[in-house]
Design goal:
Structural class: alpha/beta
Number of helices: 17
CATH superfamily: 2-enoyl-CoA Hydratase, Chain A, domain 1
Radius of gyration: 20 Å
Helix content: 40-55%
CATH class: Alpha Beta
Strand content: 5-15%
Distance between the termini: 36 Å
CATH topology: 2-enoyl-CoA Hydratase, Chain A, domain 1
CATH architecture: Alpha-Beta Complex
Number of strands: 9
Number of domains: 1
Order of helices and strands: EEHEEHHEEHEEHHHEHHHHHHHHHH
Shape: globular
Largest sheet: 6 strands, mixed
Length: 373
């Protein structure tokens, strides 16, 4: 097996066409997305976009345990330790290029099949949600757990959590609760449910497609392939937690303030394991991140995709400056003492002024780095 962090291949298809295959290849870190990987994928996307022989793309990961468990936050942590509250160029570069890649996937002119099996979190969600054909499986475990480490649901979470039904996006963003493949379909984070052992058969079927010269038909061609496999996989589909709990989610997120919403969710003491896990996740989350995510959800209501990424770049850079993200990573990833000392220590102590500071562009009147999206 190659040690390259991302593998690229072109598989021969019918009529002289090719399928461009991208494989995340760092199983040891659950395929966490580094800045190097981001740049490699972006460069190849640009090249294949201009290659008329490439009919569609297939984005997958090595191994079955994880598609991508998030961004490479160890290097982000090192940069925060080094720069403190000062300007963190590495953090800005990391998020700017990650968000550019995510946006590129959203607007890519060719079909991108994303095989989202196993763990999909944070930065992995950013790679998945923009795909034109997002495949989830019986092993898919999606989550946006950023509030648990002093961050917030980024990678366009501002945008895609608002497109989820009801207030389920807010609930998922505040609690970091895990979602299975059926949940992903309900949340509009996936399009097709296919058994995980059908990956190679799906690729073979894509290679066998007689791709028409009109590239505008290629999306439908891919959908036709996936539809057949989804029908064959119907017995493997798990129960849908989001649908089952939609009334509870509506009730728990019904309060008008973040304090009341947090109290409602964390007060849950029933015997439903999924809701209990969501409540525990919120109890252990960074208080400032919870309030920030709540405010993000309010401010993002009318933003388009481009505007969401622009707002998030500002928020992310400020999170790297204000200490809670650094402390969360230290406690949960680096030292693993699982005792982060967040400041403020409670949701009630988080001031509106502190939250507002997260939405102030650190570059002042200069041009936004993502202005050209």
């Amino acid at each position: 097996m190659s040690e390259d962090p991302v593998l690229f291949a072109e598989q021969a298809a019918e009529g002289g066409r090719r399928i461009g295959v991208i494989t995340l290849n760092v199983e040891s870190s659950l395929n966490s997305l580094s800045l190097e990987m981001t740049d490699l994928i972006q460069t190849r996307l640009c090249a294949w976009e201009q290659d008329a022989k490439i009919a569609c793309l297939f984005l997958q990961a090595s191994g079955e345990k994880a598609f991508c468990a998030g961004g490479d936050i160890r290097h982000l942590y090192e940069s925060m330790v080094e720069t403190g509250a000062g300007h963190n160029q590495y953090a800005q570069d990391f998020w700017e290029r990650e968000y550019r890649l995510d946006h590129h996937i959203h607007v890519y002119p060719k079909p991108i099949v994303v095989w989202a099996t196993g763990i999909v979190m944070g930065g992995g969600m950013g790679l998945v949600v923009g795909g034109s054909h997002r495949v989830v499986t019986e092993t898919t475990r999606m989550a946006m757990p950023e509030v648990g480490i002093g961050l917030y649901p980024d990678v366009a979470g501002t945008w895609f959590l608002h497109h989820a039904p009801g207030r389920s996006g807010l609930f998922v963003g505040l609690t970091g609760v895990s979602m299975n493949g059926a949940d992903a379909l309900t949340m509009q984070l996936g399009d097709w449910f296919i058994s995980s052992d059908q990956r190679q058969q799906v690729l073979a079927a894509l290679r066998a497609v007689e791709w028409p010269d009109d590239s505008g038909q290629h999306d439908d061609q891919v959908s036709g392939v996936l539809r057949a496999f989804e029908y064959q996989s119907r017995d493997d589909r798990p129960s849908d937690n989001i649908l089952v709990h939609q009334d509870a989610i509506r009730r728990l997120t019904d309060p008008d303030t973040v304090d009341e919403t947090v109290d409602a969710i964390t007060a849950y003491d029933g015997d439903d394991k999924w809701l209990a896990k969501a409540a525990r996740g919120l109890k252990h989350a960074c208080p400032a991140s919870v309030v920030l995510a709540y405010e993000q959800f309010k401010r993002g209501a009318d933003l388009d995709l481009r505007e969401a990424f622009q707002m998030e770049l500002i928020m992310s850079i400020n999170c790297a400056r204000y200490g809670n993200f650094q402390e969360g990573v230290r406690a949960l990833i680096i030292d693993k003492d699982r005792s982060p000392q967040y400041s403020p220590a409670t949701v009630a102590e988080v001031s509106p002024r502190f939250i507002d500071q997260h939405f102030v562009a650190p570059w002042g009147e200069q041009r936004h780095p993502l202005d050209d999206l």
